[in-house]
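Onboarding guide, step 5: your first structure request.
Type a short instruction followed by the sequence, for example:

Predict the 3D structure of this protein.
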Amino acid sequence: MKQLVNHVAEGLKLIDSSSVPFRNYQPGVGPYGEPQLVRKVLEYLRRNYPDKYLNSVTKRLPDVLIHNQWAVEIKIVRPFGDNGKEAEHWSQNLIHPYEGNVSSIGDAIKLQKSEFNERIGIIVIAYEHNPPIIDVQVLVKCFEHICREILDMSLGERNTARIKDLIHPVHQQCTVYGWELGEAAISLENH
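The system replies with structure tokens like these:
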């Protein structure tokens, strides 16, 4: 997982350095939507690490399937929008703890119930100001606490890679977080 997190961070830095804006947003990697960003990162991985990622694909579940290696769901966390205003409900992408939703916790539940032969994991791409105005670390710790302590989920150690000096005036730095999920299935009915 650590290597995958580092490779994703490399891809994000390259996308950012291209200065190509996403739609009508300001230039930089921060405003990209999840499907578009996942595709661009996967293109980077295939091109730069073909021995590891050449046959990798994007799917509905998981977001990225790295054959015989990983089935990974990816989420983006942005406390602030392109316009510099705090985004409403931004934290729900990570910690909404109910089965059937599109949060990272919901994704973890789906992955744990899946039957992939690959190892399963969650990657979160979190953008902040430098220094942070809203510290995303608090949300990450809440995510881990909910997974481990409330839902009894088998969540591996946190792996991180930080990217500083992004070109976007709001999304100035990024941290890529990644966790491997264990096989233990959970039941929300018991909580």
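Each response can be followed by summary notes, for example: The chain is about 35% helix and 20% strand.
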